[in-house]
Design brief:
Amino acid/polyamine transporter I, single chain, two-stranded antiparallel ribbon
């Protein structure tokens, strides 16, 4: 078993380095800049509009109300399910890991990735709604594989390329659902729960090397809970997500604000460290100046993408199930998704760590050798809420909810990719495999589970971004059409779908509203 894991780690390291360091970050940020420019900085120039039509429309029954159409879910349910998949261990352990490896400056690059990622996510969701279609079960099916095949594939000489990239994306999405959507999440749940709620009689029994009976039991419990929801389909996942996600985000942000407020004297030094060390990293990271800066930037971008998933093409698969007719409307929910995930939740986590005193802003090192990235945030909370280890237990529960909902959200992503490759009838096979990988995540080492997740993220990102870049002119056209109609009041024909039948039906429904 140990030999297998060692070989797996070596192979993964080679692929990970190529995907992320050689090409991934360049095309990721490049696509974000491109989509921002071609939409005329929509996230800034139309800030008031997208804010009003997302979080500002929370009391609109058309947004939060459950649709009678069994083939779709409400825009709010789509957001919550997407956030369920994005707000996970990356927001807690991922941010802590970025700071531990890349220093406080990594947070700045996480923000940069999120700023441009807003429009990458916007573009993905615009294309997702535009190229979606109904499957044999009369359910909406959308995602990068469809705009690769029918969008990129429709261009002259690109039919084969589009089809091949669609298949590759689907394969990588399935693998990613096992990594970021299962093993990586469960691994962090086990690490935090076993430490916060230790049961010596179980944790002292070693089943494998460094794997206790307690870890396996936790994995089995998570697997059973996930099965009860995942096997119920998207409606059950969305119903669970819309109840849990808003609650867990609000409670975590509130708890973080308390920690930051108590350590208010460290807020300005922490912010200064974020901006200064983004370009002038502390010596503790080691290596040449170029290498160190590269490490800081890479950690910020990687952890940012791991957290908000902008550029992966993942959340498109649930946003495409929304009951909205306008591609741009769902695209705006994509902007808010990245904003809420990174600019709010990840920033709270970073400030909790940097103001807690557990991370030395001057040296760039943790103040104790006993601290590690997987439990750093819990230790920061415990430094204030120390009675009965309440802080640590709070983070363990938060980590459980964040990670568990991510497992649920990614089960849908993987299922849609599986459906594209093998058809609707065999999706149950994927769900069973996905549920089983939960237990595997409970026994993997923390670093390996995380590294595998990074690699699968990068692999699915590449074909998706090729599709987004190629179809940028279409995104610009759809966005311009929407702005002219909805913001400037022009009476022109809406651009809603690549399929004339869906386009005509959507037009009729919009007129009837």
């Amino acid at each position: 078993m140990n030999s297998f894991l060692e070989n797996l780690a070596k192979v993964n390291d080679v692929i990970n380095t190529f995907v992320w360091v050689k090409i991934g970050l360049i095309i990721l940020i490049g696509t974000g800049i491109l989509t921002t420019v071609i939409t005329k900085f929509f996230q800034i120039t139309h800030l008031r509009h997208w804010w009003k039509n997302t979080i500002g429309s929370m009391f609109d029954k058309n947004v939060i109300g459950h649709t009678k159409d069994k083939s779709s879910i409400s825009p709010f349910q789509a957001l919550c399910t997407a956030l369920a998949a994005t707000v996970g261990t990356g927001n807690i352990a991922g941010v802590a890991a970025a700071i531990c490896i890349g220093g406080a400056g990594a947070v700045f690059w996480m923000w940069v990735a999120a700023f441009f990622g807003m429009m990458t996510n916007f573009s993905e969701n615009v294309l997702g709604i535009y190229y979606r279609r109904k499957n044999k079960n009369n359910e909406w099916s959308g995602g990068a594989m469809y705009y690769l095949k029918d969008g990129l594939g429709a261009k002259k000489g690109c039919k084969t390329v589009g089809s091949v990239l669609a298949v590759l994306f689907s394969c990588f999405a399935i693998l990613a659902s096992f990594g970021i959507g299962s093993m990586g999440q469960v691994n962090k749940i086990v690490a935090n729960v076993s430490e916060a709620f230790d049961i010596k009689a179980l944790s002292s029994v070693e089943v494998f090397t460094d794997v206790s009976l307690y870890s396996i039991i936790i994995g089995v419990v998570i697997m059973i809970l996930a099965a009860l929801i995942i096997l119920g389909g998207l409606k059950r996942i969305a119903s669970f997500a819309e109840k849990v996600v808003p609650f867990m985000v609000v409670v975590f942000v509130a708890g973080s604000l308390v920690i930051i407020g108590i350590n208010y004297a460290n807020i300005l030094p922490a912010l200064k460290s974020i901006f200064v060390t983004a370009f002038k990293p502390v010596a503790a990271l080691g290596g040449t100046v170029g290498y160190v800066i590269s490490t800081v930037v890479t950690q910020g971008f990687k952890r940012g993408v791991f957290s908000n998933e902008a550029g992966l093409g993942s959340s498109v698969m649930v946003h495409s199930n929304s009951s909205v007719k306008e591609p741009v409307k769902q695209g705006m929910w994509g902007i808010f998704e990245v904003f809420a995930d990174t600019m709010v939740v990840c920033t709270m986590t970073a400030l909790v760590v940097l103001t807690s005193g557990l991370y030395n802003l001057e040296t760039g090192k943790l103040v104790s050798e006993n601290l590690k990235d997987s439990t750093l945030v819990a230790s920061a909370f415990n430094s204030v809420f120390s009675w009965g280890n309440i802080g640590q237990k709070f983070i363990a529960i938060a980590m459980f909810l964040f990670a568990f909902t991510t497992v649920l959200g990614w089960s849908h992503y993987g299922a849609k990719a599986w459906e594209y490759l093998f058809g609707e009838k065999s999706v149950i096979v994927f769900k069973i495999i996905h549920i089983c990988t939960i237990l595997f995540g409970a026994v993997l080492s923390s670093s390996l589970a995380w590294d595998i997740s990074d690699t699968f993220n990068g692999l699915m990102m590449i074909p998706n971004l090729i599709g987004v870049v190629t179809l940028c002119p279409l995104v610009a056209k759809i966005t311009s059409n929407y702005v002219r109609r909805k913001i400037h009041g022009e009476n022109i024909k809406p651009i809603l779908s690549y399929d004339s039948e869906i386009q005509n039906r959507a037009e009729e429904e919009i007129l009837a509203e």
